[in-house]
Amino acid sequence: MFIREQNFSGRDAESAFLWGARQTGKSTLLRMMFPGVLYFDLLLSDVFNRFLSNPALLRETVEADNSSSPVIIDEIQRIPSLLNEVQWLIVNRNRQFILSGSSPRKIVRSGGNLLGGRALRYELYPLIYREIPDFDLLRALNNGLLPRMYLSDKPARLLSAYIGSYLRDEIMAEARIRNISSFSRFLEAAAFSNGEIVNYSNIATDCGVSSPTIKEYFQILEDTMTGRFLPSYQKKPKRRVIVAPKFWFFDIGIANYLLRRGKITAGSEAFGKAFEHFIYHELYSHSHYSGINYPLSFWRTSSQTEVDFILGDNEVAVEVKATEQANEKHLKGLKSFASEYNTKRLILVSNDNLPRKTGNISILPWRVFLEKLWVGEIIK
């Protein structure tokens, strides 16, 4: 059992949406947090068909329930018309709803009702370090952090099924993509852009479609919460900086499978890339779960000097190196950034055994860094 960090903090008696990609654990979390309440799972065909043909049945069922407990609707995006009934019950009966789904995209595209600010928004991501007892870094970097994949001894088949049934089939259907072969090629090309600066023209050439089409495909991945952009840090630069964003898939295992990385071993190039992805995932999750919602960005100059992650408005600069012994050459980007910006903290996250400090740069083993991050010692 994983104890999730997402606990709907600040919700009180408010209704809420819980969004997250498939298999992140939304249903498990809701059943654990809200036992014994009215719970409608729209993945069940009988429940789906009943409400699809007559959305008013939801109102009648909730009206007959005399409790004051929240009402849960799982996979709400499957029947957007139910949201009109939900809004009526919130406004006229003061009922509280928790509505989960894999993406609001279908609701928005259908002109559906997102409750006009009457529901708070929360998100659930793949597992993080502190949610996993006896965390195994190599397992995480190989399997990814979707709960089912992380626990599996043979994740390749599960990842293949996930990519085939969800990333390709379901997302293409939801987004109404007609050119199936080009989108399949795009997913593989996007994987090669994972953690890299996006070049729309090159990807368009590889996929045989236009740059605007590639931008639309990336937007679909963002809308369905299966990928996201990391913008470049551009505040008052003294030297020319790269302005194009980087792209990250939402889960390490998905990127691994699309890249055909095979088994990742410590010290390999693939280990270094997956390790950076892991730290990015922790930072992004912390920004949202903590409620701080600090922006994340990266910094790279035209001469290729780079810092992997800038937290907030240059409050903290974080460089990630998978090495077991960080040295002077690994500090170059942090020192360059510090020469241009008044940064509160400079941190190198590595595989070192013990914390060290060189000048104003802290070298932290990844476990130490994450412990400090999640207790609020890195950024507040």
Describe this structure in words.
This protein is α/β, with parallel strands linked by helices and 380 residues long. Helix content is 41%, strand content 16%. It has helices spanning 26-33, 45-53, 56-63, 82-93, 105-109, 137-143, 147-151, 155-175, 180-192, 200-207, 211-223, 252-259, 269-289, 332-340, 366-374; strands at 15-19, 39-41, 71-74, 97-101, 119-123, 196-197, 227-230, 246-249, 296-300, 306-311, 316-320, 345-350, 356-358, 361-365. Strands 9-10-11-12-14-13 form a six-stranded mixed β-sheet, sandwiched between helices. Strand 11, helix 14 and strand 12 (345-350) form a beta-alpha-beta unit. Helix 8 (155-175) packs across helix 12 (252-259) and helix 10 crosses helix 11.
State the distance separating the first and last CA atoms. Answer: 29 Å
Molecular shape: globular
- Provide the low-confidence segments as ranges: none
Query: How would you write the strand order of the largest sheet?
Result: 9-10-11-12-14-13
Number of strands: 14
